[in-house]
Amino acid sequence: MRPHRVKSIGILTAALGLLLTLMSASPAAAQAPGTRIKNNHSTWCLEIGGWSTSSGTAANQWGCTGGDNQVWVIEQTELGLARIVNANSGLCLEIADWRKDNGAPVRQWNCTGGLNQRWIVPTSDSINYAPHEIRNANSGLCMEIGGWSTEWGTAASQWQCHGGANQQWNYFHFV
Predict the structure, then answer these.
(1) Confidence bin at 16 (pLDDT 50/70/90)
(2) How far apart are CA 109 and CA 106, in angstroms?
(3) What mean pLDDT comes out for the span 13-25?
(4) Is residue 60 a contact partner of residue 153, using CB atoms and an 8 Å limit?
């Protein structure tokens, strides 16, 4: 075999490997824009505090900084449900321990595919700047900032949906 032919085969093999890797990646993760989720009442961003990458860390509200701990990837899944993944940690937003009671904490956890990690959210691109609820598929309850707090660091939890501004969220998509 001539040297330039061996080099061409090596380049083709590398390109094929890259193509197969890209094709096996989750299409939603590969194409989904980053999203900042802001509470309509407090106007603060939903985040994972302290830039934590640990399962079990609570989601809370904080002043919008633009950090990846405040960036979420919303991936549409089966039955019109969504998975909400933190861009910094790669972990899924969930209701702790499959709880269905008012006040159960919202946290990040390894993505398992469970209904406690599935959310009912609007899917239209027209939702930018329009407040809406984020409802957990397992409990049917809405994510909120409890006590109508405007304090940084207040944890997100779930509560019976009542349409209040503390249960309304705005999406801000960006690439």
Answers:
(1) very low
(2) 10
(3) 34
(4) yes
Question: Tell me, what's the pLDDT at 123?
Answer: 65
CA proximity to 94, closest of 156, 152, 38, 40:
156
> What pLDDT, in 10s, does the model give residues 25-49?
333 333 357 999 999 999 999 999 9
Do residues 72 and 84 lie in contact, with contact meaning Cβ atoms separated by under 8 Å? yes
Contact 141, 135 (CB under 8 A): yes
Q: What token pair was written down for 148? A: 């109508």
Spell out a b/e string for 130-167, using b for 16 or more CB atoms within 10 Å of the CB, else e.
ebebbbbbbbebbbbbeeebeeeebbbbbbeeeeeebb
The whole-angstrom separation of Cα 125 and Cα 95 is 26
